[in-house]
Amino acid sequence: MLTGRADEVVGIDNLNAYYDIQLKKDRLATFGGQMRFVQMDICDAPAMDALFARERFDAVVSLAAQVGVRHSFEAPAAYFHTNVDGLRQVLDCCRRYAVRHLVFASSSSVYGNARQVPFREDMPLGEPLSVYAGTKQQAEALAASYARLYGMTVTALRYFSVYGPWGRPDMAPMLFARSIAQGCPLQLYGEGKMLRDFTFIDDIARGTVAVLDKGLAPEGGIRVPAAGTEGVFKIYNIGAGRPVSLPDFIALLEEALGRKAVIRYLPMQEGDAYRTWADTSLLERETGFRPQVSLEEGVARFVRWFQSRSNS
Ligand SMILES: NC(=O)c1ccc[n+]([C@@H]2O[C@H](COP(=O)([O-])OP(=O)(O)OC[C@H]3O[C@@H](n4cnc5c(N)ncnc54)[C@H](O)[C@@H]3O)[C@@H](O)[C@H]2O)c1
Question: Which atom of ligand 1 is nearest to the CA of 162?
Fold first, then answer.
């Protein structure tokens, strides 16, 4: 999206082995020469400092994270390392090199099992249900304190269940699609009662860029960061705003794949929220952005990509 409008973009990723590295490399290859890519760890302080000194970024979008709710019970240190200490490195570099706007990925998981729906940014947060969710809550708190202390402009985006082409292989849409396509039993936790606010990747990308641009526009009130000046810390949900039950999501996949699922119903798993549902009115009011891709269209586009990748 940024490369498409001729912004100069540098991408960094340590290409960790949490899931298939080839998928990450193939995804990167889709950028062709439009983005300069540097393989590095955001926790590598000297490398980060050299990068920021060389590039003098106007804006930074920080998406790097150790992801996966379940894995966070097995390897909590990796989550703290990247999601909290790694974000601190990014914040420090943005502060030292006067980056005008830092946008970073938080998560709907910060709401836990909040009773009130839809989830609003100003609600008190629920108890984090996983280490992953706990690190995202900590990341938000850290970013808020940097913005205030150092006069920075920082925005946290709470993404809701992202799906679409090039998505993560450990997430439900890909796991479900694979089970259906291969005719294997599909494990459905929560006895099929969970609701998710699935959000198509293009809407996530468009919403992120809308927030990024608003922060960089002069009327957005963004100034060169400096200690002693007032910081700006904002949080926006980016979700479709339409929770769907997992059986309904599976039915759309079945239709697009032309095959029936063999569903094995299982109890709730530790760490999962019963439902997610984004209130996106703040995002719409302040940026004019509204999700555009319906679930039906998004699932059809995801399945087209899934089938082309399976056949390649
Ligand atoms: N996918 C979702 O549904 C979802 C929902 C809410 C929030 N998010 C957040 O959005 C962001 C992107 O998530 P994603 O689903 O695309 O996951 P992803 O794993 O595909 O992307 C994260 C990338 O970060 C890289 N990375 C991890 N640790 C790093 C480090 N120390 N230094 C440099 N790179 C590192 C990984 O190699 C990976 O390519 C994450 O911050 C995630 O927490 C995602």
Answer: 3
Evaluate whether 42 touches 89 at the Cβ level (below 8 Å): yes
Provide mean pLDDT across the span 188-203.
97
Q: Can you give the residue ranges of every domain in the chain? A: 3-311
Indicate the fold that domain 3-311 takes in CATH.
Answer: Rossmann fold (3.40.50)
Task: State how far Cα 10 lies from the chain centre.
Answer: 18
Q: Assess whether the C-beta atom of 82 lies below 6 angstroms from ligand 1.
A: yes
Q: To test ligand 1's pocket by mutation, which of 25, 67, 106 has the most ligand atoms within 8 angstroms of CB?
A: 67
- Ligand 1 atom with the smallest distance to the CA of 104 is 41
**Residue identifier of the C-alpha nearest atom 21 of ligand 1:** 64
User: From the CB of 168, is ligand 1 less than 6 Å away?
Assistant: yes
At which residue do the structure tokens 């390649």 appear? 312
Ligand 1: distance of its center to the CA of 259 in Å? 31
Q: CB–CB of 87/144 below 8 Å?
A: no
User: Which run of H or of E encompasses 185?
Assistant: strand 185-188
Q: What is the pTM of this model?
A: 0.96
Peptide bond into 225 cis (omega under 30): no
pLDDT at 274: 95
Atom 24 in ligand 1: residue holding the nearest Cα: 64
Q: What does the alpha-carbon distance between residue 1 and residue 215 come to, in Å, rounded to a whole number?
A: 17
Q: Indicate whether 255 pLDDT > 80.
A: yes
- Taking the centre of ligand 1 as the mean of its atom positions, its distance from the CA of residue 65, in whole angstroms, is 4
φ, ψ for residue 36, nearest 5 deg: -85, 130
